[in-house]
Amino acid sequence: MTEKEDYKTIDGEIYLRAKALEIIEDIITWCSLEGDIILDPYLGSGSVAVACQKLKRDCIGIEIEEKYVKLTEERLSKEISQTKIGGHFSSQA
Ligand SMILES: C[S@@+](CC[C@H](N)C(=O)[O-])C[C@H]1O[C@@H](n2cnc3c(N)ncnc32)[C@H](O)[C@@H]1O
Prior knowledge:
The protein is α+β, with helices and mostly antiparallel strands. It has one domain (3-83): 3-Layer(aba) Sandwich (Rossmann fold), CATH 3.40.50. The chain is built from four helices and four strands, in the order H-E-E-H-E-H-E-H. The protein has helices at 3-6, 18-31, 47-54, 66-83; strands spanning 7-10, 13-16, 37-40, 58-61. The strands form two sheets. The chain has a two-stranded antiparallel sheet with strand order 1-2. Helix 2 (18-31) crosses helix 3 and helix 3 (47-54) runs parallel beside helix 4 (66-83). The radius of gyration is 13 Å and the shape is globular. The model is unreliable at 83-89 (pLDDT under 50).
């Protein structure tokens, strides 16, 4: 895959595209069980958190930039309304 296929830009930052998200989902599936806790200490746009929600893992995400915490919260909210899968994500500003 080329860089253009793997990444997209949000607000000047580079994040993973859908193909790469599938790889994250595969890794989480192979390395953990439902209900396990996954730590992403550099959460960014929250791709790992979104994958965890979909795969019924809990996720602890650490992100220094508040704008990305909000972006992750928005992505998780959309995912919940689309899939009706429960999950939780908390942030502290
Ligand atoms: C490359 S992005 C992570 C991409 C993310 N895993 C994804 O899939 O979209 C790296 C993130 O780490 C965050 N970051 C950098 N230094 C940090 C720190 N010391 N503590 C927490 N987050 C940090 C940046 O703000 C940035 O959003």
